[in-house]
Amino acid sequence: MMDAAVEWAKEYGDVLGTVGFLFALTTVVLTNGKVILQRMKGETVSMVSPGAITVGSTTGNTTGTEIVDAPSLAPDYGGKAAVAVVPPKELGEIDDHFAAGLADDIIADLQQAGFATPDFVAVAQQSAAGASPQEIARQMSVSHVLTSSIRRQDRKLRVTVQLVDPSGAVLWSDRYNTEGDDLMAIQEHIANQVALDVATFVKPGSALRDPSTGRTFRTRDEALEAVSSPKSRLVALMLCIPPLGIFGVHRFYVGRPYTGLLYIPTAGLFAFGWIIDTILITIGMFADGRGRPVRIWQPDPLKQLSDKP
């Protein structure tokens, strides 16, 4: 009986090896294909938790083929937080050029406060074409858009401003009331107050942003944690060591129990699946049960607990 089995294995061994390899490769592609493709294309994985930090600024686009572990710094604005200023809306009869002059002064004061601002003409063109603040934020790669309106009653002026993020949420708003005939002084006063208030609410400086979701982060570590699995890459790699890895223990750990069960009777999908998993975990391309890459060697234990259903 054993001799017959050995002879059969010798005759069909190549076929079995090929089938096993294809089977393992298919499983890996189905469970990790998205992460592998995104990182080989140099894209940022967009699996961000709802509670991710959203204070920060901008980013440019990544070009070329590289592995990206977190959103990159914003080259277009010199690493500064960027705020797009939309031309103020005039509600009623407003003095000629007052709105344009106010926008210019706000931009100047924002830059003096340490912020970057995109080209005002480009923002105005998008606004005139009907683009919403969140669309302007995404098209101009900024984290905040400042909108405003102007009303006048006799010698009194009221300017209302809103700070909008790429999701369309109004993060902050305020109104500024002035009175007088010196329009340049009024413009200067309001612009200075707006810049000071924005600087209090949004800290200027280096920031990170995930372009696919619009979420922004103050540090690279925050961005990396937000788009990565809370599972430990080190633990996953240790569990991949034989014989545990052959029986898919690492897959149970990262939240893929069904393929883990499949590994048990197939000895890690004929060992091919186990080998590929080991390589993917080592280079940080292995995905957990929610499609997030397992790439942080020692994640925050509290984050692991909060990830449990």
Considering the chains and any ligands shown, give keywords for the structure.
309 residues, alpha/beta, five-stranded mixed beta sheet, two-stranded antiparallel ribbon, 7 strands, 46% helix
Structural notes for this entry:
With 309 residues, the chain is α/β, with parallel strands linked by helices. Helix 1 crosses helix 9 and helix 1 packs parallel to helix 10. Strand 3 and strand 4 (156-164) form a beta hairpin. The two termini are 50 Å apart. The strands form two sheets. Strands 1, 2, 3, 4 and 5 form a five-stranded mixed β-sheet that branches. Strands 6-7 form a two-stranded antiparallel ribbon. It has helices at residues 2-40, 98-112, 120-128, 133-140, 183-201, 220-226, 233-239, 249-253, 257-270, 272-283, 301-306; strands spanning 83-85, 89-91, 144-153, 156-164, 170-179, 208-209, 216-217.
Number of strands: 7
Poorly predicted regions are: 44-75
Distance between termini? 50 Å
Give the number of helices: 11
State the helicity in percent bands: 40-55%
Would you tell me the structural class of the helices and strands?
alpha/beta
Fraction in beta strands = 5-15%
Summed over residues and divided by their number, the pLDDT gives a mean of 76
Indicate the radius of gyration in whole angstroms. 27 Å
Profile the largest sheet: 5 strands, mixed
Q: Would you list the SSEs in sequence order as H and E?
A: HEEHHHEEEHEEHHHHHH
Q: Which overall shape is indicated by the principal axes computed on the Cα atoms?
A: rod-shaped
